[in-house]
Amino acid sequence: MLEGDVAIWLDPGMAFGTGNHETTRLCCERLVEWAKTSNPDARVIDAGCGSGILAISAARLGLRDVQGFDNDSEAVRVSGENAELNGLGDGITFYEGDLVTGFKGAPGDLVLANILGHVLMQFVPELVTAVAPRGLLVLSGILATELEQLRDAFASAVPSWRVETRVMGEWSDVALWRP
């Protein structure tokens, strides 16, 4: 599989997260752009890591402080296996956690959360708090029909942050840059 300029190998038998979905592509595009100008030691957090594709992509782009968490122990196991398949078994930390307990390594310079929009809406404070000063929060898993409501909820919580949105098919993302 190819994400941006990064080849990623995934277990073909896994049940989720191959990276071809619009929400994952939106996150990967933001990640690739962000990585071009970021310090390789910047901390990246993949919240709700699923198959680990975003964390693996970050490590393959040369970022060295990458972690991912999921509330599903099977997702954490599969993410670790996929990291091993890509020669990154020691380069990424995967662990079990949710959007309350998972940000133990926060704040992150880049926080990626490809999670359904209604779930993101329930954890606005936790997600924005997990972002370091001058950091970026990328939210995806958002239906285009939910975009305005979700963007407004996050923008009102952090009015000084720059907000940008995109739509791909019936899905969308929200990127928030912390000053």
- Structural class label: alpha/beta
Give the ordered list of helices and strands.
EEHEHEHEEHHEHEE
Shape designation: globular
Number of individual domains:
1
Fold-level CATH name: Rossmann fold
How large a portion of the residues is in β-strands, by DSSP E? 25-35%
> Any idea what the CATH architecture is?
3-Layer(aba) Sandwich
Q: Strand order of the main beta sheet, please?
A: 5-4-3-6-7-9-8
In DSSP terms (H or I, runs of 4 or more residues), the helix count works out at: 6
- Give the C-level CATH assignment: Alpha Beta
Structure commentary:
The chain is an alpha/beta fold and 179 residues long. The protein has one domain (2-10, 21-177): Vaccinia Virus protein VP39 (Rossmann fold, 3-Layer(aba) Sandwich). The protein is 33% helix and 30% strand. The strands form 2 sheets. Strands 5-4-3-6-7-9-8 form a 7-stranded mixed sheet, with helices on both faces. The chain has a two-stranded antiparallel sheet with strand order 1-2. α1 packs parallel to α2. It starts with a strand and ends with a strand.
Which key terms come to mind for this protein?
179 residues; alpha/beta; Rossmann fold; 7-stranded mixed sheet; two-stranded antiparallel ribbon; 33% helix
